[in-house]
Amino acid sequence: MSTTPCELCVKKEMDDILASVSQKIIVILSGMNAIILHHSEQLDIFSANTDSELELPYISAGISAGFPSPALDFIDLSIDLNRHLIKHPSSTFYGRVKGDSMKDAGIHDGDLLVIDKSLEAADDKIAVCYIDGEFTLKRIRFEKNACWLIPANDSYQAIKVTEDNDFMIWGIVTHVIKKMS
């Protein structure tokens, strides 16, 4: 059975995409010691590894965003980000944001989310939701017979969730970790 040049192009593109994704996953997993649980166009979800400890210097007096202060004089404590960011290790996961639907809430493409599945959903919380086979990140609002998934970007429409949808609030975002350029 022979393949056409078009089929070969598609196969090569798919192989390149799979190789790129595999390399990225390996890099992420080796750096985080995490297991990828879900991969999609909207969100990647990883397990949180809290077995490791890394005590880093912590400036307890705060860091001035105005005039310079002698902050180095106050480095007397340390902080372990696992203990600081993760309150419920067995129900906490990481998620990598894909897209810009929450940009006006300060959550951008590539940001790393700390997601706690043990927290109760409430109005105005930012949540990772599973709706009709896809994960999405939105602010949640409850009404009498519906739940609304509200984006933080005027380019996107709010999603009304009814009993006809396959829907679950998968977890509540507790922290957003950003990489500065």
Q: How would you characterize the overall build of this protein?
A:
By secondary structure, this protein is of the alpha+beta class. The chain has 2 domains: 33-50 and 88-181, Umud Fragment, subunit A, CATH 2.10.109; 53-85, no CATH class. The chain contains 2 helices and 11 strands, in the order αββββαβββββββ. The protein has helices at residues 5-32, 81-85; strands spanning 36-39, 43-47, 55-59, 75-80, 92-97, 112-116, 126-131, 134-142, 147-150, 159-161, 167-177. The N and C termini lie far apart (50 Å).
Tag the structure with descriptive keywords.
Umud Fragment, subunit A, 181 residues
How are the SSEs ordered, and which strands pair?
Elements: H1 5-32, E1 36-39, E2 43-47, E3 55-59, E4 75-80, H2 81-85, E5 92-97, E6 112-116, E7 126-131, E8 134-142, E9 147-150, E10 159-161, E11 167-177
Antiparallel strand pairs: 1-2, 2-5, 3-4, 5-6, 6-11, 7-8, 7-11, 8-9, 9-10
